[in-house]
Amino acid sequence: MDRTAQLTARTTAPTTAHDIAYDPPPGSPQHRAARVLEANWTGSSTVPSRALYPHQWSWDSAFIAIGLRHLSPSRAQTELETLLAAQWGDGRVPHIVFNPSVPLDAYFPSPDFWRSSTAGRAAGAPRTVQTSGIVQPPVHALAAWLVHEADPGLSRARGFLARVYPRLAAWHRYLLHRRDLGGGGLASVVHPWEQGMDNSPCWDAPLARVTPAPARSFRRADLDHGCAGDRPTDLDYGRYVRLAADYRDGGYADGAGAFAVEDPAFNALLIASEHALARIARELGATGTARHARAERLTAALVERMWDPAREIFLCRDVRGGGLIPERAVCGLVPLLLPTLPREIAAALVRTAGGPHFGLGAATRLVPSYDLLGEAFDRHRYWRGPAWFNTSWLLERGLRTHGERGRADALRTALLDLAAASDHAEYVDPYTGEACGATGFGWTAALALDLLHARGAPAEADAAGQAREARTDRGDEETEHSERTEHTEHTEQAEQAEQAEGDMGLQRGDGG
Ligand code: 9WN
Q: Pfam families, alphabetically (predicted)?
């Protein structure tokens, strides 16, 4: 066990019988995945990796909760609530919640770099917990809904959804209002780490405008664990540091930064989560109609602003540079997740995933993070080619949502085979499946567990149900224009009411 792992080893009592609802048979794939989640559990949340990422990460926790719900719905609830307890007053959910018992030099940038409680004061950063000041993709409402579904009785008894709803609503509101930097209704990311696919070639052009912080002004901790050839370069890191430092020095106020990009995956996840919030609202006694309608409007904006019909993929939009970024990356396939995506676009995305640029089902078994034929392709370097398990899980869900059962089954089988064979690696070589990065990685184990649990009908039923519900709320496809207008006005009123409910809920909480 290395130094960080020793210092952060769980201090709480070991698992108690009532905590773990399902104990998989020893030696089974479920058991092996469960052991990873157990080893990474700190008592209130789960680290992505004991050595490389020894704190709580935002979108990791959402994916982890989705798997953890099959072992312990109460732990999965706690996972999300621990993260949401660190929410800022302006609604942002920070990308890292720092564990105070982890040494400062175990991960860079550390809490003394972000200085959230002082630099983030005007934005409402919490005083008692240290966090980063940037965000990550909003998978949380989707995760909260799936966690609820794992044990609705327990969820209702504990008031889980009633507690998280106002925080999730405020989170979405932050993204839709403070982060609409392009003015087209979609959210922008202001740092490559926010999008979660940190070193994607999609960022190369917008990042080139950023003056890097000198390499001697910071010390990278990732190179203590990862191989330098697989990690971002020092030049990239210098730019990441500059962007984060400038954001911090501006009090984490939004709008002024040198980097602003609308990303299709980030926005697709926001839309999927908005559909999930509609379901949560409905469970809590509201109609949810306004949220489904908003998700519809966002889907239309996504198509209008980012769909490239010639390349048959969604592209990122460089808000500062003013145009679409002509790079094919997995983020452009993630919108397949959306239940009400126009049919011809869903069909085109399926073609692109299986075509020469991603090779899914032919040259590759999991979806590569970047274009196999792209100039910047590198099969081992972070997000410039390797395949991650969370993006393949999202694609699997998307394929199932759009009735591509055979392809979804093949992807599920590949994901399970490679998760087990790679010792739940962080990511794999897209051609060979060779393990890369950390092993015992949180979301790899969690999402494998989810797929093991869902084998067959439940996931399909869930995806199909989601599509049906969203379509029903959208109204009959043939609805007359006048009826649509009326519907829109009605839903806007409902949306305002839902927003007010969310506001009240957040005020009742401690705001972080
Ligand atoms: C920066 C934790 C995170 C993931 C990201 C992944 C990597 C961090 C880093 O690890 O990012 O947030 O230091 O490279 O790219 O998706 O959430 O697992």
A: MGH1-like_GH
